């Protein structure tokens, strides 16, 4: 089966760095996505990793280790507007489905 | 503006009503999706359409009936829903099904069943 785990809630202060972890179990791994979702709004795409390593996009970076079934989203220089839920999602080529975690709600103070 | 528009944004209906949710994408994508998002639960895939053909029905009750008249439009017809169907219903589209291209989501319809 497929399973994705991420923390339910996290808090951080403005200007700080926060790392949101995601562990997954899946057969036929075909990439991992991170989405940001503000309350009452659409999830928006942040990053995609299919090979091991770090992908950097401005203040946001995403890391993947396929052997460990592990990814993290790193947010630097936190701003109040970064308060949102962050969804980890895994694509499986066995099922052709994108499976989502429950999301991590980040509160920036 | 994500390129995916959903209407209505909010819907309150009784269990015996019939209503429809509408989704339109302006991105030229070939795959469209319906998801259900309930509090403290992961996004649940309901239906997938690829090139206007339904390719996935994820064990969804028959009181939910999708329709895809063309590659830009997707509907979800609702009939005799239950209180547990109250949730946020999200539509998404992508270039192709199961691709490495991200899915683009609409803002969703917040559905409340009385």
Descriptive labels:
heterodimer; A: 109 residues; mainly beta; 6-stranded mixed beta sheet; 5-stranded antiparallel beta sheet; 11 strands; 0% helix; globular; B: 114 residues; 4-stranded antiparallel beta sheet
Structure characterization notes:
The complex is a heterodimer of chains A (109) and B (114). With 109 residues, chain A is mainly beta. Chain A is built from no helices and 11 strands. Chain A has strands at 3-5, 9-12, 18-25, 29-37, 44-49, 53-57, 60-65, 70-75, 84-92, 97-100, 104-108. In chain A, the strands form 2 sheets. In chain A, strands 2, 4, 5, 9, 10 and 11 form a 6-stranded mixed β-sheet that branches. Chain A has a 5-stranded antiparallel β-sheet with strand order 1-3-8-7-6, with no helix packed on it. In chain A, a hairpin with a 6-residue loop joins β4 (29-37) and β5. Chain A is globular, with a radius of gyration of 13 Å. Chain A starts with a strand and ends with a strand. Chain B has strands spanning 4-7, 10-13, 18-25, 31-37, 44-50, 53-57, 64-70, 73-79, 87-94, 104-105, 109-113. In chain B, strands 2, 4, 5, 6, 9, 10 and 11 form a 7-stranded mixed β-sheet that branches. In chain B, strands 1-3-8-7 form a 4-stranded antiparallel β-sheet, with no helix packed on it. Chain B is globular and about 40 Å long. Classes of the chains: A mainly beta (109), B mainly beta (114). At the A-B interface, β4, β5, β9 and β10 of A face β10 of B.
Nutshell version of this structure?
The complex is a heterodimer of chains A (109) and B (114). With 109 residues, chain A is mainly β.
Write the layout of secondary structure elements.
The complex is a heterodimer of chains A (109) and B (114).
Chain A (H helix, E strand, L loop, with lengths): L2 E3 L3 E4 L5 E8 L3 E9 L6 E6 L3 E5 L2 E6 L4 E6 L8 E9 L4 E4 L3 E5 L1
Parallel strand pairs in A: 2-11
Antiparallel strand pairs in A: 1-3, 3-8, 4-5, 4-9, 6-7, 7-8, 9-10, 9-11
Chain B lengths: L3 E4 L2 E4 L4 E8 L5 E7 L6 E7 L2 E5 L6 E7 L2 E7 L7 E8 L9 E2 L3 E5 L1
Parallel strand pairs in B: 2-11
Antiparallel strand pairs in B: 1-3, 3-8, 4-5, 4-9, 5-6, 7-8, 9-10, 9-11
């Amino acid at each position: 089966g497929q399973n994705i785990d991420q923390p339910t809630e996290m808090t951080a202060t403005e200007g700080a760095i926060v790392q949101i972890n995601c562990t997954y179990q899946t057969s036929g791994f075909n990439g991992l996505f991170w989405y940001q979702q503000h309350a009452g709004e659409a999830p928006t795409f942040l990053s995609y990793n299919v090979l091991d390593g770090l992908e950097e996009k401005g203040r946001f970076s995403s890391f993947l280790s396929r052997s460990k079934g592990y990814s993290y989203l790193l947010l630097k220089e936190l701003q109040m507007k970064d308060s949102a839920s962050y969804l980890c999602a895994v694509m499986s080529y066995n099922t052709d489905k994108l499976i989502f975690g429950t999301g991590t709600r980040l509160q920036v103070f | 503006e994500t390129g995916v528009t959903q209407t209505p944004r909010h819907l309150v209906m009784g269990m015996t009503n019939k209503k429809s949710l509408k989704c339109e994408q302006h991105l030229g994508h070939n795959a469209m999706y319906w998801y259900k998002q309930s509090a403290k639960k992961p996004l649940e895939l309901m239906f997938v359409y690829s090139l206007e053909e339904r390719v996935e029905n994820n064990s969804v009750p028959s009181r939910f009936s999708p329709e895809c008249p063309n590659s830009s439009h997707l509907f979800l017809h609702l009939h005799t829903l239950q209180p547990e169907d109250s949730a946020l219903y999200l539509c998404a589209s992508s270039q192709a099904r199961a691709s490495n291209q991200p899915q683009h989501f609409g803002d969703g319809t917040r559905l409340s069943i009385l």
